[in-house]
Amino acid sequence: MLSEVIQSTLTILQHELLKSIYETAIMLAISFSFSLVFGLIFGFLLYLTSNKAFFEKPILNKVIAAVINFIRSIPFIILVVFTLPFTFLLVGTKIGPVAASVPLCITATVFLARLVEISLKEVDKGVIEAALATGANTSLIIRKVLLVEAAPGIVRGVTVTFISLIGFSAMAGMVGGGGIGNLAVQYGYYRYETGIMIFTIVILVIIVQLAQFIGDFIAKKLSH
Fold first, then answer.
1. Phi/psi zone of residue 80: left (φ > 0), alpha (ψ -120 to 50 degrees), beta?
2. Residue 195 in contact with residue 5, Cβ under 8 Å?
3. What total number of domains does the chain contain?
4. Is 29 helix (H, G, I), strand (E, B) or coil?
5. CATH, residue 94
6. Which of 103, 109, 96 is nearest to 26 (CA)?
């Protein structure tokens, strides 16, 4: 019985594994790259527009915060369905890894933006005040003080975002995104291929552990 399960698992993996890994890699590469850029931008905007020492803009801050909170309040699986018309308009299809990357980009960006904002708010105000007292301009303070002091927290936020994306990409596979999540559902759940389910869980755990290790290592190196 065990040999049959192993043989069935190996046969399925031989035909589907590389395709699933490729689809997951596409989703993660697009959504992580997009969220890394725009998550940092919106995170800094949230912080800078709420701080008197920089560009305090209460109305702009509330608008950005409201949009982010609105998107964050929508469960990802619902967000995928909700954004289908926009996804089709943007990429010309509603299925596949590229289409699934659209809601992934949105949810990861707002998630990272809040984590970046939190990291920036944890920077000691005394350090910022000292920099202002020396006559340093805003650009210099952002680059040499905020970024340096908040770097470990931001890296940890980026790590958490990437790990969350792995889980979201697995859910995206259930609605036509493909990838490892789709492999687990189609074979491990619908066809009762226990070996496939166990294999995909092991793969996802390894990826998460590796991402966490790298993130912690970089954050430790940036701590001072």
1. alpha
2. yes
3. 1
4. helix
5. 1.10.3720.10
6. 96
- Two structure tokens written together for 214: 């790298």
Both tokens of 64, joined, read 């950005």
High-pLDDT (> 70) share of the chain, %: 96
- Find the domain containing 37 and state its range: 2-44+74-124+152-222
Residues whose CB falls within 8 Å of the CB of residue 129, separated by 6 or more in sequence, listed in order: 53
**Gap between the Cα atoms of 155 and 159, Å rounded:** 6
Decide if 59 is inside a domain: no
The amino acid at 38: F
| Closest among 178, 216, 143 to 22, alpha carbons compared | 178
Q: Which amino acid is at 50?
A: S
Residues 157 and 118: beta-carbon distance below 8 Å: yes
* Predicted confidence (pLDDT) per residue in 65-102, tens digit: 999 999 999 998 889 888 889 988 998 888 888 888 99
